[in-house]
Specification:
Length: 627
């Protein structure tokens, strides 16, 4: 006995009739939903909790941006009449990229996938739309296992949608007016808005979420008028929200020269573009490997949409980038020295403050070096400098921009829920001799893969604590998607996550520390706040004040009458240094008045005190935290 499943147009009732297959082969059942551009075939699967979930994978939301369409905004997908059978298969197409110096993927990659517990048009289910991280997820929505979207999101009563989009050398080029990755995402959001009801969704209850570069993309949509009305809440996990402006002209010139075409300064000539379009995908990727393609949508300074926001970081973010080099032996750490660390401070300051003034930069670099270089008695301790390096990059590039964004949104009345993920997973405990709650650590719990290391392909048996965190994070995230509040009922998930309250009278930034036992804590990353939010702007403002500069010049002129001009200027600079020392004294006083604690991490439900430099099996990148 057989039957057909036919979906009506958006304006009609969706009629469903299942194929009758042998009992127990539910994952092979078929169904068809009629979207606004054509029918798609999906499949039925059983989630871990026994709930039926419908999946539609690899639905085209745009025409392939190939051939003459390379480096052009994508166009909506063409209509089709026959059922699109590929929606029953695992994820369609990686976007073209280099992975471990190997070229993979295709420029034909603009597809999305849907996981829904219902396809009844009246279901009105809330939706989470996930934007993948180009770095740690290698630029493909499919790098996140389908079980994660199915078991820890869709099975909790929401629709989970993810999609691919262009990035790297195919997402930006000189003369192209917009970041093409952003326009791809916008096209996907528009498709979702038009078709949400056909898959049981509520187009007015979309939460846009992402991690890493995906979080930065979410922010760009929060600041874009073109994205207004396409989502009603936002989740941003571990974004670097302060980046140096991407030099698209410089990157484009390098690419053109690397592939043997002729670069035309500041203009896109027909011959140059035709030469580039004729180059195969792999050649473009190989020519781009040494070029910075960290392009982002440019909405700097634009106001943020007033929608509920969940925002957070992991404790030791930057550890991900460097622990990838640290595989089962510590030779990588041994290269770290005080001089290497000092060079890194200069790079971080340049990225954070984006200074062109050499004097201001030198003063700032010297100040930051003094704050982070506290181990004068043992300056040859490579483990100390490695830990300080990770701490510096984590606080400056992740923690400080995150709290700055959270405060800005909260001060405008936006509901903001701030978190820090502090749990060291069983996978990372077993993986490396140096431990840290690194970038992406919370992803394995959100997508129900708690034994999957973020640092390698090795899998481990999750502990009971790991499994409990899968349930806890899944509940918090889906509550936020459903209600704009992760703990809508007091004491739900065994914690009350209160929204950030921040104004001129209340400068403390409370946040949820997520771990084996999650709890609200009063001060988010206090040293990141003290140094990068309070002290650095104060120094820059003081140096930039015209009256101070005028005062120093006047003093220098007066002193030069008694001594020499150089001596007068030297004394003026000493006054500047005294002023900086005063600011440092204030910083030290504030720091000493804070409660200091020792880090504790959880392994197999037992807490052990961290020894950052010891030889025990339980180590961490960071020693004491500034609590």
């Amino acid at each position: 006995m057989s039957a057909a499943i036919v979906g009506g147009r958006a304006s009609s009732r969706l009629h469903i009739l299942f194929f009758l297959l042998p009992l127990g082969i539910t994952s092979q059942q078929g169904l068809i939903v009629q979207t606004d551009i054509g029918p798609v075939i999906g499949r039925q699967m059983v989630a871990a909790n026994g709930l039926m979930v419908f999946t539609f994978q690899g639905i085209p939301y745009a025409q392939p941006p190939v051939g003459s369409e390379r480096w052009k905004p994508a166009k909506p997908a063409h209509n089709w009449s026959e059922p699109y059978a590929n929606a029953t298969l695992p994820y369609k197409g990686r976007c073209a990229q280099s992975r471990d110096f190997v070229q993979i993927g295709s420029e034909d990659c603009l597809y999305l996938s849907i996981f829904t517990p219902s396809i009844e048009q009246g279901a009105q289910l809330p939706i989470i739309v996930w934007i993948h991280d180009q770095r740690s997820e290698s630029g493909i929505s499919g790098d996140t296992p389908e079980t994660g979207f199915r078991d820890n999101l869709a099975a909790r009563g929401i629709i989970a949608i993810t999609f691919n989009y262009r990035f790297g050398p195919f997402a930006a080029f000189a003369g192209v007016d917009e970041y093409l990755g952003h326009s791809d995402q916008l096209l996907a959001l528009e498709w979702i808005h038009r078709n949400a009801a056909l898959f049981g969704g509520n187009a007015s209850k979309v939460t846009l979420a992402g991690a890493g570069t995906g979080a930065e993309d979410v922010l760009s949509h929060l600041q874009s008028s073109r994205s207004a009305g396409l989502f009603a809440a936002a989740i941003m996990q571990s974004g670097q929200f302060r980046r140096r402006r991407f030099d698209v002209d410089n990157a484009s010139a390098k690419l053109v020269n690397n592939v043997g075409c002729t670069w035309a300064e500041n203009q896109m000539t027909e011959s140059m573009m035709q030469c580039l379009i004729n180059k195969p995908t792999d050649e473009i990727l190989r020519a781009s490997q040494a070029i910075d393609w960290s392009a982002r949508a440019n909405n700097d300074g634009a106001p943020i949409a007033s929608v509920p926001i969940m925002l957070g970081v992991t404790r030791d973010e930057w550890g991900y980038h460097d622990l990838l080099n640290l595989t089962y032996q510590s030779s990588y750490v041994r290269q770290f020295s005080r001089s290497y660390f000092m060079d890194q401070v200069s790079e971080v300051v340049a990225n954070y403050a984006q200074l062109n003034d050499t004097v201001s930069k030198d003063l700032l670099v010297g100040t930051i070096q003094s704050i982070y270089s506290t181990n004068w008695l043992n300056s040859d301790d490579s483990r100390f400098w490695f830990a300080q390096y990770i701490r510096l990059k984590t606080e400056a590039l992740y923690h400080a921009p995150t709290i700055e964004l959270a405060r800005t949104a909260a001060a405008n009345g936006t509901p903001v829920y701030l978190y820090q993920f502090d749990h060291l997973s069983s996978a990372e405990m077993a993986q490396l001799p140096w431990k840290g709650v690194v970038h992406g650590s919370e992803i394995q719990y959100l997508f129900a893969t708690p034994g999957r290391s973020v640092l390698s392909e090795v899998h481990f048996n999750p502990t009971p604590t790991d499994l409990q965190l899968v349930s806890s994070i899944g509940g918090l995230w889906t509550n936020f998607v459903k209600m704009g509040d992760p703990t809508p009922e007091a004491g739900s998930r065994n914690v009350q996550w209160t929204r950030l309250q921040y104004d001129n009278a209340n400068a403390r930034s409370s946040y949820l520390s997520i771990g084996a036992v999650s709890a609200m804590k009063p001060d988010f990353s206090p040293r990141a706040v003290e140094v990068w939010i309070d002290l650095v702007p104060a120094i820059l403002a003081a140096v930039a004040r015209p009256e101070i500069i005028s005062h120093f010049v006047e003093n220098s002129c007066n002193l030069s009458n008694k001594f020499s001009t150089f001596a007068g200027i030297g004394i003026a600079l000493i006054i500047v240094l005294i002023f900086i020392c005063g600011l440092l004294s204030v910083y030290i006083c504030v720091k000493r008045n804070r409660n200091k604690g020792t880090v504790f991490i959880t392994a197999d439900q037992q807490q052990r005190e961290v020894d950052p430099y010891g030889d025990t099996n339980v180590k961490t990148l960071f020693g004491s935290r500034y609590r």
